[in-house]
Amino acid sequence: MQVTPLAPVALSAAQPVLQTARLRLVGNNPHLGAAVADYMVLNRAHFAPWDPPTPPEFFSADGQTERVLQGVAAFARGEAFRYWLQPLEEPERVIGSIHFSQVARGAFQSAALGYALDAAAQGQGLMHEALQAGIAEMFSPRVNLHRLQAAWQPSNLRSGAVLQRLGFVQEGLALRYLFINGAWRDHCISTLLNERFEAPSAWTAAEQG
Q1: What is the architecture, at CATH level 2, of domain 9-208?
Q2: How far apart are CA 167 and CA 118, in angstroms?
Q3: Each residue of 122-142: pLDDT tens digit?
């Protein structure tokens, strides 16, 4: 299914909204803390094989509100862009997230991609739909990244398939990349390049100078 994201509607510089056929992708907002905590608690066992260890307070409403506030600041500084996934028919519920972190500018113009989806929402193409919209925003002139990199465990075939359908290319294997679920885990590295990247004007000026 081809999904064309609608033009983003800005709540503020740090709280954008992207919309697709079935989802609202909402930026960090303090009022989301309780809904995010509910989503994390509900999926704690589901995410355990793929996520780094976290302290117990991570799953509390206060812990998630603090996390969301940190995300607001990071978004405003252009250091990381997280979107929470909400069904259009259930605007108060959170069912997933996509996160463009470790944003590097200069000659790199890159970010790391992470994503997660409620166990009950899988198998419906929702993550593909959300990532299409998020990637379109990251590669738009507003953000203008050149490269996205995603790391996924070789046993997580569903994750690898999602990336492949989006055009990501597997570049290699990072050995003992992250400590997850009690051990250092290897991760496949997949990347996607922005073929419409617009070189900053400073680069052209430097070449002419």
Answers
A1: 3-Layer(aba) Sandwich (3.40)
A2: 23
A3: 999 999 999 999 999 999 999
